[in-house]
Amino acid sequence: MGKYRIKAYFDEAYPPVPEKSTLFWRKFVPWQFIRFIVLNVKMIRIVVGGHS
User: Fold this and answer.
1) CA–CA dist 31, 24 (Å, integer)
2) 3-state secondary structure of 42
């Protein structure tokens, strides 16, 4: 049994840990507001395009 070791999980099974800059942009409220506006404009363009 010493020759064969059972490993429960490989390193590839775990998700990557976000960097500090990624965590900052996720929590930065002004950036979230800008992305919210951009997303809404995209949705409005799709809805208006479908109703014309």
Assistant:
1) 10
2) helix
Cβ atoms of 25 and 31 within 8 Å: the answer is yes
Give the tens place of pLDDT for each residue, 27-44: 999 999 999 999 999 999
How far, in Å, CA of 45 to CA of 37, rounded? 12
In this prediction the pTM is 0.61
Question: How far apart, in Å, are the Cα atoms of 16 and each of 4, 12, 22?
Answer: 28, 9, 12
Q: Which residues of 24-35 are buried (b: 16+ CB within 10 A; e: fewer)?
A: eeeeeeeeeeee
The answer for residues whose C-beta is within 8 angstroms of residue 38's C-beta and 6 or more apart is none
Q: What is the chain's length?
A: 52
